[in-house]
Write a structure and sequence with these properties.
The protein is mainly alpha-helical and 342 residues long. Helix content is 64%, strand content 1%.
């Protein structure tokens, strides 16, 4: 018999003497054994220790006070009994009576209308500004200039609203710097701080001056997480600065933008308290009354605690509905949103 090419003296074995081929077996994945609770605690205790203070603050100042929403269904009287528990047990249950009184009050709907108008105005004219500022700061080549600008724009966030409103009064008020300069030039100054028609622009300008730099921090962090290789690849393909901004930067910022937009919609009925109560007398209730000031003047000042709790519960329910709706829309558009789907 002749040997096959490439073999010297090889002889084919008879077919009956060949060993039977072994059947192929697919290796089954070994199931991972779940760690016990004690093992996980032993592994993660440093992380749990770091998160414990924040979790404690959240529990004490957010979740425990949530139990107080039950007085929205009572004619609550804090002076019944010797302690808050006696006052809670001794107050009369009136069901949805507080909500009926709240929804029949035209002042409440005026406050809701003002709150939603301010929220919508600030979503259009304030929400995009931190994104633009972050893009501008990210394009600055000099690290020293960038650090100086960041320090300047961050600083107003740490000022109280009393100081911010005082700054605007001293600058734009009837006896402020701008009015004095206009009088010296023979012009009649206009009442910026006392004009109810432009109050929504005024409070938005104050919020921009105070929180613009602080709001840009999140977007700067998101910009630093974008892979630089994407910019290099886009530049190699001939994309200019605006093309790289549109096709690389903004898609990298989109998850953060969607997340912050959803969270802002959840706070649609919360536009602040100090800023508005400080300027309410100057422009009048019709322009400056929001839900937080309504609760103060119509519930706390008049000791109608159940009515105030009903207004707060109304805000919470509306905020929850807005968050769930916006998050569902984000999922439909392919974004993760506040939480991911299972």
């Amino acid at each position: 018999m002749s040997a096959p090419p490439g073999t010297a003296g090889a002889v084919d074995a008879p077919a009956g003497d060949r060993p039977a081929p072994r059947p192929r077996t697919t290796a089954r994945p070994v199931p991972r054994r779940r760690r016990t609770l004690r093992a996980r605690l032993r592994r993660d205790w440093p992380l749990l220790a770091m998160a414990a203070p924040a979790a404690t603050l959240l529990l004490v100042f957010h979740y425990v006070p949530t139990l107080g929403n039950v007085i929205a269904f009572q004619d609550y009287n804090p002076f019944v009994g010797d302690d808050p528990l006696d006052a809670f047990l001794g107050s009369e249950w009136i069901g949805v009576g507080n909500f009926e009184a709240l929804f029949r009050d035209p002042l409440f709907w005026d406050a809701v209308r003002n709150t939603l108008s301010i929220t919508a105005f600030q979503l259009v004219f304030f929400f995009p500004l931190p994104i633009m500022l972050a893009l501008l700061l990210n394009s600055v080549v000099s690290g020293r200039v960038r650090g100086f600008v960041q320090s300047v724009v961050y600083l107003p966030h740490f000022f109280s609203w009393v100081l911010v409103v005082t700054f605007f009064v001293q600058t734009l008020g009837g006896a402020g710097l701008l009015a004095q300069e206009l009088r010296q030039a023979g012009l009649q100054p206009w009442g910026v701080m006392t004009n109810p028609d432009t109050f929504i622009v005024l409070v938005t300008a104050e919020a921009v001056w105070k929180d613009l730099g602080w709001g840009a921090i999140v977007f700067l962090a998101a910009l630093s997480a974008i892979d630089p290789n994407l910019y290099e690849a886009a530049a190699a393909d001939g994309a200019g600065r605006w093309r790289r901004l549109w096709h690389v930067t903004l898609p990298g910022l989109r998850p953060v933008i969607v997340l912050l937009l959803i969270m802002r919609l959840g706070d649609a009925l919360s536009v602040g308290f100090e800023q508005f109560i400080l300027q309410r007398d100057a422009v009048g209730r019709d322009a400056a009354e929001v839900l937080d000031t309504f609760v103060y003047y119509q519930a706390i000042a008049t000791q109608q605690w159940g009515l105030g709790a009903a207004a707060g519960l109304f805000k919470a329910v509306v905020g929850l509905i807005l968050i769930l709706t916006a998050n569902h829309v984000a999922h439909r558009l392919g974004e993760q949103g506040v939480y991911s789907r299972a």
